Amino acid sequence: MPFRFFFSEAMNSLVRNWVMSMAAIVTVLVSMFILGLGLILFFNFQDAISDLRSKLEIEVFIKNTASQEEIDALGVEIRDMPEVKSVYFVSKEEALQRLRESLKGNEDVLDALSGNPLPPSYQITLNNPDQIEEVASRFFDHPIVDNTPGKDPPDGVKYGGETSDRVLKVTTIFLISGAGFVALLTMASILLISNTIRLSIFARRREVEIMRLVGATNWFIRWPFVIEGVATGIIGATAAALAVLLANYFLVQNVVEKMPFLFSASAVPIFRLTIFVIAGGTLLGAIGSTLALRRFLRI
To answer: I need a labelling partner for 166 at 20 to 30 A (CA). Which of 32, 72, 153, 216 fits?
Structure first.
């Protein structure tokens, strides 16, 4: 019976102050939707970066003047490195063939070349992509690696660490900016919920006084306001969760096919994300109502 009474009082109060209630609900919806959307992008970026880093490799170009013995010795040296997962030797002929395939339709560009100027190379894959810069630096001063003197960074060693780090920096900036915006909306949500509860307390001030006089406990008076704040948060967060599900569905249906390198249908733990968004909105409602009760309900 008490819970039914508390719940009924909370719903009636939401209806009476529907303008402020709607403002609080919409603010919770927007803040939780932006947070959910940011998490969807974060999970996809993380998945794309992990996939990118797993495919990173070091390509070491060898001077055309190097002898076969020196090339073989470098191959043995590379294979003996504990960080190395696999090594593949690309001969001058294979390098030229790859270039010819990449210029398909414009092969006549190569006809102007006299001979084969492309150097042989080793393609190296590591067990741990995070060590790519450390391993690549071992070839910067190697005597048979085709580095241009005085060039910084050396151009005889190619690795994708810079690209991955750039993407990671952009993602970090995006996340920090998004977190700041969500924090502002979160504060706005809490304040709006708090003001909604404040209006409810003001509208029922005589009823509260009567309950005090007849001996009602503090929590008997407080519970309807707490439930009102939590309900505001739940309603806004549930709507936000539905919007997040629709946004994720749109991304899967329309973006994954066009940009499979950036978005993945399996990257987002959608159930946990939905629970997180609803729990976050509920927490906002609880904080907002608690703040209002402490400031405006002196019992």
So the answer is: 32
